[in-house]
Design brief:
The complex is a heterodimer of chains A (429) and B (175). Chain A is an all-alpha fold and 429 residues long. Chain A has helices at 6-28, 34-41, 45-53, 56-101, 111-118, 121-136, 148-152, 155-160, 166-196, 203-230, 243-268, 277-308, 311-323, 325-343, 352-379, 387-408, 421-425. Chain B folds into 2 domains: 2-36 and 141-174, ACT domain (Alpha-Beta Plaits, 2-Layer Sandwich), CATH 3.30.70; 53-122. Chain B is built from 5 helices and 6 strands; from the N terminus they run βαβααββαβαβ. Classes of the chains: A mainly alpha (429), B alpha+beta (175). Chains A and B meet through helix 12 of A and helix 4 of B.
Chain lengths: 429, 175
């Protein structure tokens, strides 16, 4: 059995407290009037040129817009991190279900790590939905289609209101989250039960196989719709047909990376002695492959829109390239070029510190990926990675660590009853 | 001059693998092993050097990428610039995203084809080549170890028998 080390517990609680302080500061320092908003940005170039050159009427219009952006900023920072950590856990759940449904032989020794990470899905998902509820109650203006005033003057959103309306939106959200969490609950239950039954009885394993296969069908439909709802609808005028896949690739690679990071962490602390470097090698191969898969989808989405150059579509990338140049192309370096070069060599994938180093870059890169998906339409050109962004990242990081490692203490770290456990222990590439 | 070799037959890949390990550990030199399919771990048991084809594959991929870049630059920018979708082909950089699929495909094409050709050359295989394996059954279900015989013929035969060979033949191999 694993015991939650005291130092890690303190570390995660400290992250949460520091993060909470940062977030509180972010919310308190958001401007409440137009004058404050203009004053806050008057030192930078953008505010100056506008106030000098434009007329009075235009100025107040601009000021109101600026105020909304700055008021959205701490909310958007909160939402990006909340979604990002929920997404990690959802990605791991998909990976876990694929291992189960494929009856994989190599990954049994990692099942408990994966189950630990998916424990975050319920709290993480509830937090994301809570933020969405607060948006629905107009505490913030992240989703402009939730504002009836905007919808009344916007024909494109009005035509979508059969789908984008609050009751249906939250019904979907609750349906998706409960479906995922139910699968997670039963799969964990059968997995623990299988350990306690004699080795000739694999009925729990079979049940797990069946529900995993069914879950994957459910997951790939709901994940796609979830990504339209929770991420894409923040730009209600714009759409991309492969967006669900794109978000999936992002969560899948981040999830696999986090499995590798936690496995190596536990192994370095003297646990998981049955995990050998072939398991790490396989996780490294997945990190490499899915990073390229992510790039393929990123580029497919980008190139078609860039080439077609249709005004209502291309604005999406124009704001990102003009206002978000560094994070937009920086994430391409972090999520594609860096893992491509480092993880290409077969031997490097067996070296723990290389996996950890690349893994941290991939995880941060995909945080920026989510940042790029949400920030441009929430705060426009007023983005920064400041106190509220770092604070919310730290808060959810601490929460994630606390919940995941707490779950790891609840069961033995080896799923010893699994019929493939011997194959997995002897796994050798 | 002719060489005397022992041909030891096996009918199972696991038995073969343990036999190879046994023979190598007794410091006998195995000339060649013929198998109907790749046996996992045999290369390590025989002490063969690791393959360098991965390095060649990387180099071929880089060549393919370079060819694609130069080719598209010549076709679309230098030789016959066209205005496609409101994107006039004045400069390579501003049209680059359109060429990425071609770069990718050429990288894969070069890496894959040149790797196969390299493999054939290194394995001395070409069309209409006469088969090197001494018995057609090694392409079906039999495994064969070929060991050069020195003065220790008897000892070697006893060792092979012990490792589970189903048949042993001594052959004069013409040079």
């Amino acid at each position: 059995m694993y015991t939650f080390p005291k130092r890690l517990k303190v570390f995660s609680l400290a992250c949460m407290i520091i993060g909470l302080l940062g977030l509180t500061y972010g919310f308190l320092s958001a401007p409440s009037t137009i004058e404050e908003a203009i004053e806050m940005t008057s030192s930078d170039h953008y505010g100056e040129t506008v106030s000098h050159n434009e007329g009075h009427e235009k100025d107040s219009n601009h000021g109101e817009h600026l105020l909304h952006k700055l008021q959205n900023k701490p909310w958007a920072a909160l939402y990006v991190s909340a979604f990002f950590f929920m997404m990690i856990s959802l990605g791991v759940l998909a990976f876990y279900a694929i291992q189960r449904a494929a009856q994989a032989g190599w990954s049994i020794v990692l099942y408990r790590v994966m189950e630990g990470i998916t424990a975050y899905l319920l709290p993480g998902g509830i937090i994301v939905i809570a933020i969405l509820v607060l948006s629905g109650l107009h505490f913030n203006h992240l989703f402009i289609w939730m504002d009836p005033e905007v919808v009344a003057h916007d024909e494109i959103i009005r035509n979508k209101s059969g789908y984008l309306n609050l009751p249906f939106f939250f019904a979907r959200a609750i349906f998706f989250l409960s479906g995922w969490v139910l699968y997670r609950y039963f799969s964990r239950k059968f997995s623990l039960k299988q350990d306690l039954t004699p080795s000739n009885d694999i009925s729990n394993h079979k049940k797990n196989f069946k529900i995993s296969a069914a879950f994957l069908v459910f997951y790939f439909v709901t994940e796609s719709v979830m990504s339209w709802d929770w991420v894409m609808s923040i730009d209600p005028h714009w759409f991309s047909t492969l967006f669900g896949w794109y978000v999936f690739a992002s969560m899948f690679v981040t999830g696999i990376t986090v499995i590798a990071l936690i496995t190596i962490y536990l192994k370095n602390n003297g646990y998981l002695d049955f995990v050998n470097d072939s398991h790490i090698h396989d996780l490294g191969k997945f990190m490499f492959a899915i990073s390229i898969f992510w790039t393929y989808l990123w580029f497919s989405q980008f190139m078609l829109i860039w080439y077609a150059n249709i005004p209502e579509e291309v604005t999406y990338f124009m704001t990102r390239i003009e206002d978000y140049n560094l994070p937009f192309f920086g994430m391409l370096v972090m999520n594609f070029i860096f893992p491509l070069i480092i993880l290409m060599n077969s031997d490097y994938k067996r070296v723990n510190y290389i996996i950890v180093m690349t893994g941290i870059v991939i995880v941060l890169g995909h945080y920026i990926d989510v940042f790029n998906m949400i920030m441009p339409s929430a705060v426009g050109d007023q983005w920064s990675i400041g106190i509220s962004e770092i604070g919310s990242f730290l808060f959810f990081f601490g929460l994630f660590v606390y919940i995941v490692f707490n779950e790891l203490t609840k069961a033995p770290l080896l799923a010893k009853g699994d019929p493939f456990v011997k194959e997995s222990k002897q796994y050798h590439y | 001059m002719s060489d005397k070799v022992i041909h030891a037959f096996y009918d199972d890949d696991d038995v073969l693998l343990s036999a190879v390990k046994e023979i190598v550990s007794k410091k006998h030199h195995i000339d060649e092993v013929y198998t109907p399919f790749p046996v996992h771990g045999l290369d390590k048991a025989l002490g063969l050097e690791g393959t360098r084809i991965a390095i060649m594959s990387f180099i071929y991929g880089c060549v393919g990428l370079a060819v694609a870049i130069l080719m598209m630059n010549h076709m679309m920018i230098v030789d016959w610039p066209q205005n496609i979708g409101g994107k006039p082909s004045f400069s390579y950089v501003s049209n680059m995203p359109a060429f990425v699929p071609i770069m990718f495909e050429m990288t894969v094409f070069f890496a894959a084809h040149l790797m196969v050709i390299t493999f054939y050359l290194r394995s001395r295989l070409w069309p209409f080549k006469k088969a090197e394996n001494p018995y057609p059954s090694t392409t079906d279900d039999k495994f064969l170890i070929e060991i050069g015989v020195g003065k220790n013929e008897k000892e070697l035969k006893a060792l092979i028998k012990k490792t589970g060979a189903i048949d042993i033949k001594i052959v004069e191999k013409p040079e």
